[in-house]
Amino acid sequence: MKSFIPALAIALMPLAAAAEGTVSVHDGYARGANPKSGAAFMVIENAGTTACTLMGATSDAADKAELHTSRDERGVMKMVATGPIEIGPGSSHELARGGDHVMLMGLKAPLKDGETVPLVLDFGDCGLIHIALPVDNQRKPGAAGADDGDHAGHGTMTH
Ligand SMILES: [Cu+2]
């Protein structure tokens, strides 16, 4: 039984080693779809050596925050709840219009330009990330200043 305690210690290590700063979020913003719901978009980067998984999110600005993705079903964009989103070591994942996003449901107040929306992202063993996203209802789909036409045709999405 000599190995029992060391094995337990090793099993607990990932929690203790959940290095802060491994996962970072940038280029985030939120926008309202209607007075009661909105969505948050951002680029998540994992600079660590192990995968980190976005398990879910919460926001003080909304009753509920859900991970969603958008799907093109015979030319009609539909949003569906999606499972955890894994970001591999050394890679990044974009939550973008027409793709994955954090849906804010039951907004306590409509999202107004110039305000910020608090969001807590739960990366499980990789920790929690607290961010405040600017509200930008005018922002067009696609990367800022780099609307290269890749997203053409997705502009009819309703949020
Ligand atoms: Cu959605």
Automatic annotation (TrEMBL):
InterPro entries: LpqE-like, Lxx211020-like, PCuAC_sf. Residues 1-18 form the signal peptide. Keywords: Signal. It comes from the Bacteria. Residues 138-159 are annotated as: Disordered. It holds the Pfam family PCuAC. The keyword Signal applies. This is Copper(I)-binding protein. The lineage of its organism: Bacteria, Pseudomonadati, Pseudomonadota, Alphaproteobacteria, Rhodobacterales.
